[in-house]
């Protein structure tokens, strides 16, 4: 493109801008080809998220995603992709490190508590701030 941009007439400024932006992102632009198993395109990545959305719809019967997807989405997405790739047995699940599992549950609980506080703030900001102020004083 850089060799032929002189022939583009009115599109030359757009090509120059495209080349500038592409050059600035070049080092990580094709990172997907360096990592084994990483989706190559947005379509592949969207399909992975689509699997999770499909399972959510089938399990809950809802057409829209549940709010829990914000809290537990990372775990649900990883498990949806993993179960699509491999059928797990009871022996596979028994080999899970209990400390890692407990840490993950603790992290998820913290995320859930933060979401609850955000909801309380949105519903009644003055009461939430008053409670927070009394706790800090």
Task: Characterise this structure.
It is built from six helices and no strands. The protein has 137 residues and is mainly alpha-helical. Helix 5 crosses helix 6. The radius of gyration is 24 Å and the shape is extended. The chain has two domains: 9-88, no CATH class; 96-136.
Q: Catalogue the unreliable spans.
A: none
Protein structure class:
mainly alpha
Order of helices and strands: HHHHHH
Helical proportion, percent range:
over 70%
Described by strand count, sense and barrel closure, the largest sheet is: none
Structurally, the number of domains stands at 2
How many strand elements?
Answer: 0
The residue-averaged pLDDT reads 80
Radius of gyration: 24 Å
Strand content: under 5%
What's the arrangement of secondary structure elements?
Elements (H helix, E strand, L loop, with lengths): L11 H18 L12 H19 L7 H18 L4 H5 L3 H26 L1 H12 L1
Helix pairs in contact: 2-3, 5-6
What descriptive keywords fit this protein?
137 residues; mainly alpha; 2 domains; 72% helix
Compact description:
With 137 residues, the protein is an all-alpha fold. Helix content is 72%, strand content 0%. Helix 2 (42-60) packs across helix 3.
């Amino acid at each position: 493109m850089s060799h032929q941009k002189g022939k583009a007439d009115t599109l030359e400024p757009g090509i120059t801008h495209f080349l500038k932006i592409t050059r600035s992102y070049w080092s990580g632009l094709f990172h997907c080809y360096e990592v084994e198993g990483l989706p190559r395109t947005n379509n592949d990545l969207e399909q992975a998220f689509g699997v999770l959305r499909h399972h959510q719809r089938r399990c809950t019967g809802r057409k829209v995603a549940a709010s829990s997807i914000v809290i537990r989405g990372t775990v649900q997405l990883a498990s949806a992709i993993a179960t699509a790739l491999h059928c797990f047995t009871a022996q596979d699940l028994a080999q899970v490190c209990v400390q890692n599992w407990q840490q993950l549950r603790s992290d998820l609980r913290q995320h859930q508590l933060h979401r609850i506080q955000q909801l309380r703030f949105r519903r009644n900001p003055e009461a939430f701030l008053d409670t927070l102020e009394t706790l800090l004083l």
